[in-house]
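Hi C.,

You asked whether I'd gotten around to modeling the 482-residue construct. I have! Everything is below, sequence then structure, no commentary in between.
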Amino acid sequence: MRKYLVIGDHIDKGRRERSRMRVRALRNRLEHEASHDALTGLPNRGLFVERTEQALECRPDGSMLAVLFIDLDDFKAINDGVGHEVGDRVLASVAARLQECLSPTDLAARVGGDEFGLLIEGLSGQADAEGVARRVIECLTTPFPIGGEEIVVRCSIGIAVSASAGDDVDELLGNADVAMYDAKGQGDRYEVFEPRMMEQVVKRHEYDAALRQALERHQFSVKYQPMVDLDSGEVVGVEALLRWDHPEQGVLSPGEFIPLAEETGHIVPIGQWVLEEACGQVARAQRLRPRGRPLVLSVNLSTRQLQHAGLVAEIVDLLDRTGFDPHNLLLEITESALIEDTDETIAILTALKALGVRVAIDDFGTGYSSLSYLRLLPVDVLKIAQPFIDALATDGEPEIFVDAIVHMGHTLNLEVVAEGVETPEQLAALRRMGCNIGQGFYFSRPLDGVATTLIDPERFGPLDDLVEPSAPAPAPLALVAG
């Protein structure tokens, strides 16, 4: 009987040991899942912060460490273009490449949706951290062959170096994040944190708060720059240009606040206000215009506005309330905005054209449009980017390039507009090429209201007498309250 008890006791002990082993394995697996990213297998943000804090506390005297934050630029375009499944495979492949280009003592982690963090220890100086950043950029440069596609990934890297024993982990990670933001958008670039960057962050937050209140406090205004027919000299339209009368900084041009408005989403209500304000003013001016073709109103449409789900319905409502003829509304969209989510963009532009609204590609020549791509887009106008106009009459190459754009536009039955015309030489060159319309300081600076002389279709008259180098610019336009 005792023999059976001993055997039974051994069996029970074996079962208990196996049960404990299963519990330990389960606990280890749960702990790993809690501290690692399921998609890439890398440590997650929580474990990365923990390891960084330990490294700060335990590093040898005289040793430096660095945190690198890596952001994959425009990763949303990859998800939208080839699908989230392929996007996930790209993220997993990026993680694998990061581990391949690091030393065994370095730590790579996935700290956000398309963001990765690196902890680099045992550095002798900042140059070592910059060397790691260059190695990462080089490592990610080769396209990723996934799902029959060659996926190109660009990244921005922020570096924060710690040389003092008492450095705070939150401050170090925050500095790396600020440096990454400073590098972002430049494409395959890294920046090392400097205190001046924090000043920019503070300024950005202040601008963000001010932008939230600017519409309510009526701090925005619209200026109008005439668009002139280069054959007849007739003013055929105006471009609406936004200005912000900042309470402390004075009048700000779009380049000083539109990027932030775009990023934060403020651009959607601001853009809607610009459309309504401009349509109302030009509609009133049009009723005073006794002869000549109707004035065209050109308004910039940002990427964020183009992605806004209610855009078409809001424009329908706007046209109805202002009484503005949709055939005289020209919406300007940049090349970069057009290539994001192409199918959806084409659907939106097609819906706008069904209303009678026309579409222009703004700053043409600075983006990625090709002849085959242009054929797919429901556009009516090409606006040549100002840098190409600036270079006209300086040497032969810019003129050849602009002439090619004009010829291509006419081949596709598109109207061609030159922005930034400032000299008689530029005007003469554009007329020789057959460019349809011009705008710029040569004709008029942006005006505070719709001008009385816009009512006169013969404002400039034939331009033949205005294209000689010695010819003076036309007299300034007079203003009338909008």
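If it helps when you're writing up: Residues 465-471, 475-482 have pLDDT under 50 and may be disordered.

Thanks,
B.
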